[in-house]
Amino acid sequence: MAMATMTAALLLLLLLAPAVYAVNHIVGGNSNWNQNVDYVTWAAGQTFTTGDNLVFTYGNSHSVDEVDKSSYDSCATSNPIDSHSGGSTTIALNAAGTRYFLCPAAGHCSQGMKVAVTVVANNSTTPSPPSSSGSPSPPPPPSTASSPNAVAGKFCSLNHLMVGLVLGFGTMFALVV
Predict the structure, then answer these.
(1) Dihedral of alpha carbons 80, 77, 89, 91, sign
(2) Nearest-10 crossing angle of helices 2-16, 148-176
(3) Which of 38, 103, 107, 121 is the most buried (most CB within 10 A)?
(4) H-helix or E-strand spanning residue 49
(5) CA angle in degrees (0–180, nearest 5) for 9-13-173
């Protein structure tokens, strides 16, 4: 009886382990954060859920500014909520709402290098697969995560906990058998 209970607990834990990971949305897909990419179509093919991440990968001539809706609509770059550079930026989607991003390099935004993402509340423990996005709502507060390491820090302790539990249950299972 104890062995069956431990086996069931281990299987349940293994099934739940993938739920601690957020979905990383590579902005622009294979085209990354570049000019001549249809970001409206790209964003429409995604479901952005709280806990997910936006991953911007770009060259030296680009950067990423988070802006409000008015600045997004007019491609104004003078008052960003947050600015990122360096070729790789990961932004945690930590609240529901619509967030707006653009490339502040001269002429890039007006040529379409901007993206609006609508983040929906995560009502389950599993990450969301890409699908379609919802309607716009007011922007949430800015993200403090500007690099993969900053985002990884939020999930690291939970990942270690899950690995420890799996190893602990595995060891107990091995001792019982």
Answers:
(1) positive
(2) 160
(3) 103
(4) strand 48-49
(5) 50
Structure tokens at 171: 């060891």
Alpha carbons 99 and 116: distance in angstroms, whole number: 6
Give the number of C-alpha atoms closer than 13 A to the C-alpha of residue 146, restricted to the C-beta side: 13
Closest to 17 (Cα-Cα) out of 117, 125, 142: 125
CA angle, residues 151, 133, 47, in degrees to nearest 5: 40
Residue with tokens 């799996």: 166
Determine the Cα angle at 153 with ends 164 and 39, to 5°. Answer: 120
Structure token digits, residue 148? 């993969």
Does the pTM of the predicted model rise above 0.90? no
Q: What is the dihedral of CA 116, 108, 88, 21, to 10 degrees?
A: 20
Contact between residue 26 and residue 57 where contact means Cβ atoms under 8 Å apart: yes
pLDDT tens track for 117-160: 999 998 754 444 544 444 444 444 444 333 343 334 344 444 55
Q: How many CB atoms lie within 10 A of CB 63?
A: 22
